[in-house]
Amino acid sequence: MLPLLGKTKTMILTYSSSFITHLLALPPTSASTSTRPVSSLLHRSPQGFFGSILRYKLRGYCSSRVNRGEFMASNIKVVQNPDSISYLNQREAAEVDEILMGPLGFSVDQLMELAGLSVATAIAEVYNLKDYNRVLTICGPGNNGGDGLVVARHLYHFGYKPFVCYPKRTAKPLYTGLVTQLESLGIPFLSVDDLPMNLSEDFNILVDAMFGFSFHGTPRAPFDDLIQRLVNLQNYNEINKKPSVIASIDIPSGWHVEEGDTNGDGIKPDMLVSLTAPKLCAKKFCGSHHFLGGRFVPPSIVDKFNLHLPSYPGSCMCVRIGKAPQIDISSMRENYISPEFREEEVDPDPFLQFQKWFDDVMAAGLKEPNAMALCTAGKDGKPSSRMVLLKGFDKDGFVWYTNYGSRKAKDLSENANASLLFYWDGLNRQVRIEGSVQKVSEEESEHYFHSRPRGSQIGAIASKQSTVIPGRDFLHQEYKDLEAKFSDGALIPKPEYWGGHPGCMIGYVIFLKKVDGKSDVWLHDYHSLHHHYKIPKF
Ligand SMILES: NC(=O)C1=CN([C@@H]2O[C@H](COP(=O)(O)OP(=O)(O)OC[C@H]3O[C@@H](n4cnc5c(N)ncnc54)[C@H](OP(=O)(O)O)[C@@H]3O)[C@@H](O)[C@H]2O)[C@H](O)CC1
Ligand SMILES: [K+]
């Protein structure tokens, strides 16, 4: 059990499954025992909790991440300006291939596998399994077709239902092996005659893997017909309620590799996944989703061709190029599909129920399951929320740590009432905790402080929350100085202003600049060094 620093005492736990919210209440004076039968509470009509649907609009200050031209959405990095990257002509694309598979020692199998995986990843990023389950991969005679075979295999493992049309098979072992792999998974191979004229009747995604950068002239049979069916899709889509989409690998098939869709009567893919570097025709791509994949380009190629390519963050296989399409927020909705939440399965002890759900979240491998929104309001009654990390819980309360100088600590010193909210996406569950917060002993704070990594301890000293500092460099310098000071491994003293109050934020917060007393944005950095930028009120 972790030490207790901040505790919510009186609390209401609200367990929610698929957003059907049930309320569990504890007696207002004690958090340790619950005498109230859970089932009686569960029978309340949701109307009692929500009343009629109200439309709220919040005007005020908004915090958001700093936009520095590139940002991450669902782990995929976005390159906002497509003109900032290099485009290859047909000769360069072939030359890169030759160097990779010549002096640089790559095999085509390897590159194809990585290329195919990046395409499958991009598809899965954009087209969800529920709405885009049936995928037809149309494969051509060359390596682009081979990429398509690899994509079909990965999509199968991602949970999609792939089909393959591969009318001009290549007899080389690489390709026969890829076909065998798909056949062993039971993936159906369809002939051109098996396919409906209106491909959207049977398929949600059409993966265009017919031609890549070696395409020349005009498409020959049977690809002329297949390309025409993809062109016709647009007309069918206009009358279809649920349009199907085309995802092209490297080049939209039939397009001129450098000039693009010269006559304007070619296919109009919704997604293009360029490999290695986009080819010139990609500049003419007008679909919604342009990705770059093929994370295998070594620095020697980058230097030789003077390539400007975005970096792939973390373990991402692809990067989005250009802005994601604007989404009508009012039309965004999910169908929450999760096992029924049954009263008889709810533990009468809300803490045990919380433990059960926390175990589920851990088993599901969700990221930062202990992240929770903490909402406080000072004496002015104006609420503010931020994410903090749960560091332990028991029947006395839920524990987190913070800096006494922070706004949340100040709020709590004026008004002990606060709420916590966990939201576990993927399990469709949320837990609400409401109550009052107490300070805890200095001893407990001290104990927890020294259990943290040294970098975080130094960060806590460097970050005097809610104070104005000259700039970010000042913060870094302060950190470096402290790091040097404690480099001998000596005990790092806990600063007086840290601990003993509601707790440990994901990082600490420093007001970097004060611009007309406007609102702020926080920036995540290493070792809990965070700072705020002021942004204008809107
Ligand atoms: N380095 C990388 O990024 C990697 C990319 N990969 C993928 O490989 C393709 C390029 O592969 P390549 O085999 O060189 O070429 P294609 O897939 O474009 O296809 C060549 C075959 O298509 C025939 N072809 C060409 N034009 C036509 C046409 N008008 N009608 C019918 N058939 C045509 C051609 O036959 P020819 O007799 O005409 O020469 C070939 O049979 C690249 O774009 C990526 O997708 C690798 O997978 C990994 C490394
Ligand atoms: K293609």
Automatic annotation (TrEMBL):
GO terms for molecular function: FMN binding; metal ion binding; NAD(P)HX epimerase activity; pyridoxamine phosphate oxidase activity. (6S)-NADPHX binds at residues 143-147, 212-218, 250. Pathway: Cofactor metabolism; pyridoxal 5'-phosphate salvage; pyridoxal 5'-phosphate from pyridoxine 5'-phosphate: step 1/1; Cofactor metabolism; pyridoxal 5'-phosphate salvage; pyridoxal 5'-phosphate from pyridoxamine 5'-phosphate: step 1/1. Its EC number is 5.1.99.6. It catalyses: (6R)-NADPHX = (6S)-NADPHX; (6R)-NADHX = (6S)-NADHX. Catalyzes the epimerization of the S- and R-forms of NAD(P)HX, a damaged form of NAD(P)H that is a result of enzymatic or heat-dependent hydration. This is a prerequisite for the S-specific NAD(P)H-hydrate dehydratase to allow the repair of both epimers of NAD(P)HX. Belongs to the NnrE/AIBP family. This is NAD(P)H-hydrate epimerase. It comes from Lactuca saligna.
